[in-house]
Specification:
Blueprint: H1 4-21, E1 28-36, E2 39-47, H2 49-54, E3 56-61, E4 65-69, H3 73-87, H4 94-120, E5 126-129, H5 131-164
Antiparallel strand pairs: 1-2, 1-5, 3-4
Helix pairs in contact: 1-3, 1-5, 3-4, 4-5
């Protein structure tokens, strides 16, 4: 069985893995139809989460110039929460709160980005969320689960100490 200290360290490790997930190229895949000599072909553009923070430009149609993925403030907040979760000590429920808010923000980012791409391309472009996105989602959920286990173990320790006295 895990001890409370092991779980605290493990939660910090998970926040570190989430931080690294921001740099994975497989966060979102955008399929864009591009007009070529032989007609339309699909071009797949892989976007990392860090590109949602710093912005991204890519060619959409040669006549229209560049298409820009606007910097997404919600992704910036998730990034900050990840850093805060790693560096702050284990305050009661803090990691669960940060992870829970980040889970909700990830869903908002997905909805906003889907809407931007689909309306900006008149429904021609497609968006697929890849390993980077879903790994963040699952890891934030794992942090909440581990925080609940830690809280339960602390309650058991308090109950055992009260009984012994």
């Amino acid at each position: 069985m895990f001890t409370i200290n092991n779980l605290k360290t493990f939660k910090r490790l998970i926040f570190a893995i989430i931080f690294l997930s921001f740099f994975l190229p497989a966060y979102v895949s955008i399929t864009v139809p591009v007009l070529g000599i032989a007609g339309y072909r699909d071009e797949i553009i892989n976007v990392s989460a860090i590109q949602f923070i710093i912005g991204l430009k890519f060619k959409y149609e040669p006549e229209e110039g560049e298409y820009r993925v606007i910097i997404e403030p919600l992704t910036i907040i998730i990034f900050i929460f990840t850093i805060v979760g790693f560096f702050l000590p284990n305050v009661k429920n803090l990691h669960s709160i940060l992870a829970g808010i980040s889970l909700v923000l990830l869903l908002f980012v997905k909805a906003i980005f889907d809407n931007r791409i689909l309306t900006g391309s008149y429904g021609l472009a497609g968006v697929r969320y890849k390993f980077g996105y879903w790994s963040m989602f699952l890891l934030f959920g794992l942090i909440i689960f581990l925080d609940r286990i830690t809280a339960k173990q602390k309650e058991e320790i308090k109950e055992n100490n009260i009984v012994k006295d």
